[in-house]
Amino acid sequence: MIGLGIGTPGPLAQLEVSGPSIVRARVNSDGGNAGLSLTLNSIPKWSVATVTGGAFQIYNDVISQNALQIDPDNNNVGIGTTSPTSLSCTSMSQVPLIPSAQ
Q1: HSE of 33, CA atoms in CB hemisphere, 13 A
Q2: Out of 34, 50, 62, 87, which residue is the most buried by the measure of CB atoms under 10 Å away?
Q3: In the prediction, which pLDDT does 43 show?
Q4: How far is residue 11's CA from residue 102's CA, in Å, rounded to a whole number?
Q5: Mean pLDDT of 9-26
Q6: DSSP symbols for 20-63
Q7: At CA 28, angle to CA 15 and CA 54, rounded to 5?
Q8: Dist CA 44 CA 42 (whole Å)
Q9: Would you place residue 94 in the very low, low, confident or very high pLDDT band (cuts 50, 70, 90)?
């Protein structure tokens, strides 16, 4: 395997970015969306992006639907919707709740 290392002389993956503290990769768009597409066998499966308006989105490319969106103005989370109206909003009629550890 030939890898590209940024900040490392011996990458352990095809692309490895390493640094002494906080390490971030930057994907910038001057308009529209900025994100990453995750594919298998060259077929898009999922995308993660900052979309128009600044929301964070996980998108299911297989069924062409939004899976999760976080509103940047209030941190509302939408599952299956792009317009969350509360801290946790879903387009499904029932969502199983997992009790938190006390």
Answers
A1: 13
A2: 50
A3: 92
A4: 41
A5: 87
A6: SS--------SSS-EEEEEEETTEEEEEEEEPTTS-EEEEETTT
A7: 120
A8: 6
A9: very low
Sign of CA dihedral 92, 34, 3, 62: positive
Q: Residue 91 carries which DSSP code?
A: S
DSSP 80: S
Residue spans per domain, the chain: 4-90
Q: Which two tokens stand for residue 57?
A: 């989105």
Q: Note whether 37 and 44 are within 8 A (CB).
A: yes
pTM equals 0.71
d(CA 80, CA 65): 7
Residue of 51, 48, 90 whose CA lies nearest to 72 = 51
Tokens for 100? 């938190």
